[in-house]
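Hi V.,

You were right to ask for the full record rather than a summary. Here it is.
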Amino acid sequence: MMEQVPEYRFCGKCKAACGFHSYDLRSIFTWRLLQTVAMGQVLSLLICGTAVSCQFLADAGVRTPMLQSFLNYALLLLTYTLVLCTRKGEGNILKMLRTKWWKYLLMGLADVEANYAVVKAYQFTTLTSIQLLDCFVIPVLMLLSRLFLKTRYRPVHFVAVAVCLLGVGAMVGADILAGRNEGSTNNVMLGDGLVLLSAVLYAVSNLCQEHTVKNQSRVEFLGMMGLFGTLISGLQLAVLETHEATFRDWSASIFMLFAVYALCMYALYSFMPVVVKMTSATAVNLSLLTADLFSLFCGLFLFNYKFSALYIISFVVITTGFILFNAFPTNSSLPENRAESDDHAAASPSLRPLPPRIDVGEAFDAATAL
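Predicted structure:
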């Protein structure tokens, strides 16, 4: 057998390391990838709905971010938490609280405070700073996923993230050229710090979400988020926003805007675990980078924003990076649907464990090393 030329062996190893060794176009651009892209953009549209309703509320002089969050958590409580209350056996909410209450408390606390911190940041810093620093959630989430979920990223995933962030840079550049720099400059350091804090807290919340929906269930995650989110946001609402919420002239339009915001957030929280289970929390956050662009497109008609071709370029670049990230799957040591698999195995004791799966990349490396 002829020995391979060293250059070919080197190229083969590079392809294996980057994740290109066993893929062709038909295996990359699949129906599942199309579903992932479409569902990610649905999430972005829901965030756009919350952003537009928030803008209208701000124009009306409403400053109640905690009340808005409380409505969302209350809806989760009235649906998913009640479902957990009706379950029996290991899926009962009381048994979950006995063993894992502190985990879900930390998860709910991180989510509530992340929402509050990023809204509060608008009082101290500019929109440009928020758009840029909010992307900090992606590297933090990748680091946490590597440490706690043992997710292994290939070089192509880092390239995809860089492409998405390049698209964000184009969007921010378009905002600067268009003169859109809303926000405040009262205390830029404090505002930027709040954005970075919210990014870290969002990363923690998203990490907990991915672990729960892939190893337990979507209903358990949403039920516990509704329970602890309602308790924490309700307490903060009573302390911080009671005066603003009670001494206000509530009109029908204000009620309608609150309803739109709450329903969009409820749909976002309900639908996001589905996409996370299909992909990962990091991939979902990459898809959400287009949410600001959808908000800008709505602003062209609702708030008289100026159009820039850079917005279209930014959308294409971010979407390209998102597709590239999802085209090559990551590897995690945590099994998906562990609870469902255990139940199925218990119901079918005659099933034999499958032989260990051969890693194609390792096999390729071994072959090219000969």
